[in-house]
Amino acid sequence: MHPYKTPVSAFAALLVSLAVVGSTRPAQASSSFPLKLQASLQAQFNQSFCVPQCTACHETSTGGFGTLNKFGLNLKAYGMLTPVVYNDNALKTYFEAVAAAKGTGAMPNGDSDGDGVSDADELKAGDSPAIAGPRGQSLLCPDLAYGCGARIAAAPPPPVDRTALLFAGLAGLFGLTLFRRRARARRPAR
Fold first, then answer.
1. I need a surface site. Which of 39, 111, 119, 162 has the fewest CB within 10 A?
2. Among the listed residues 124, 130, 95, the one whose alpha carbon sits nearest the alpha carbon of residue 110
């Protein structure tokens, strides 16, 4: 057996492990969603709208997988959102489904935040359909504060991708097992 085979195999397994960890990225919402939501709002209500922030459907301004708010969850429940595609007729289909569900108790008035004002009325007024009451007013397109009171902060660290860690661990374990088997095979028999 060639003396460099075992270290090269272990090195290759380590490189594969690092490649698995380095190649995965956290799921993110599409940057085109806000523009498509704006177009859907304009088509639905026949009036002009600002470009909504990611917080129209997400809990955070960065969006991403697992951060949908109440309104985003309702859109998803009616099949309007997927991780990759935003249905251009999302709001129209959503409001048609809400109208069809009236009286069934599935979603009375299409009121995601449960404040007694329908999602349609809140969206038309520029309010957030995910934040109840006066706190949600004018939050579909919130003004961002700049100036003396504002500060720049570092971005939060990206979330841990557990699947990548699992595969990296498995690849590392596979490499270690291969390394140990070859080391045992090189030992002289007793």
1. 162
2. 95
Question: Both tokens of residue 120?
Answer: 């349609």
The structural domains of the chain, with segments of one domain joined by +, span 5-25+161-186, 33-136
Nearest to 127 by CA among 38, 52, 46, 48: 52
d(CA 53, CA 41): 13
* Cα distance between residue 145 and residue 72, in whole Å: 25
The answer to whether 69 and 130 are in contact (CB under 8 A) is yes
125 and 75 Cβ atoms separated by less than 8 Å = no
Phi, psi at 86, each rounded to 5°: -110, 120
pTM, rounded to two decimals: 0.57
Helix axis angle, 33-45 to 90-101, nearest 10° = 60
Count of CB atoms within 10 A of residue 48's CB?
Answer: 8
> pLDDT tens for residues 136-156?
888 888 766 555 655 555 666
